[in-house]
Amino acid sequence: GDVRDFGKSKDGGVARQFVLSLVQTADGLPIAHEVHPGNTAEAKTLLPMIRSLLERWPLERVVLVADRGLLSLNNLQELAQLQAQLDAAGRGVRLEYVLAVPAARYGEFKAELQWLDTTHDAAVAWEGELLWATGDEKDPADPPRQHRLVVAHDPVVAQRRSQARREQMRELIALGEQWGGRLDAQDAGERRRGRPLSDSGAKARLYHAVKDANLAHLIKVDLHSELFQFTVDEQRLQYLEGLDGKLLLVT
Questions:
Q1: Which domain, by its residues, includes 155?
Q2: I need a surface site. Which of 74, 127, 190, 224 has the fewest CB within 10 A?
C-alpha cells in the first residue's frame, strides 16, 4: 500500500513523505532496508528494525550508537525487554548501546551531576562516570537495571554558552526596564510623541520577545497582573549554568 503520509521532514517543514531504514556495511554497501509510513518518528523505527535484522541473520552482538532522535531514555526499557526475550530463546545475542542524552533530559540526572560537580573543578576539562539505576523491584515488566553514565565537561563551551545566555537576558531585561520606566513616566504625567504605552501592551511585547528567545523559563512576565512586571529566576539560571558545557552518555 501507499505509505506516504504527512510528517516533519529533515528541512523542518511538513511534507508528504515516507521513512526509509537503510542497513549498510562498514564500506557503505546497502544490504537491507525497510519502509515506514511518513508520519513515523525516527525513534519508533530503530527497535523494529533491530528485531527484523535479528530474524534475518544470526547476529551475535548488536551495538546501538544513537542520538536523541533514534534512541531515547524511554526506549531503554523496551531494549531490556528485547534482551530478556533473546536470552529466554537461547539466542546468545548481546544488545549494547551508547546513547547521547539530550540537554532537556538532564534533570533526570540532577543528583548525579551535582555530585560530580562537587568532585571536579569547573574551570578545567574533566570526565567522570558513575552508575545510574532504573526500574522497579515490584514491577516485573520493568526490573531494576544499572546503566553507566558518562559525563564530560568542557569549560570553554560552558563559558561561551553561559555568556551567550546572559547577554540575551541582559538585552531583554534592559528592554523590560526601559518600558517599565516609560510607564512610570507616563503615570507621573510626562508626555511623549507617539502613542502612549500601556501595561498590557508592554506585557505582550516583552512576553513574545522572551518567548522568541527561548528564555521564558528564566524571564517570567506576569501576564495576570494589571501592571507590567517581570522577574528573573536566578535559581533556575544557576542550575542551567551548571549544565553548560556538559555532554552525557548512557551506556
A1: 102-251
A2: 224
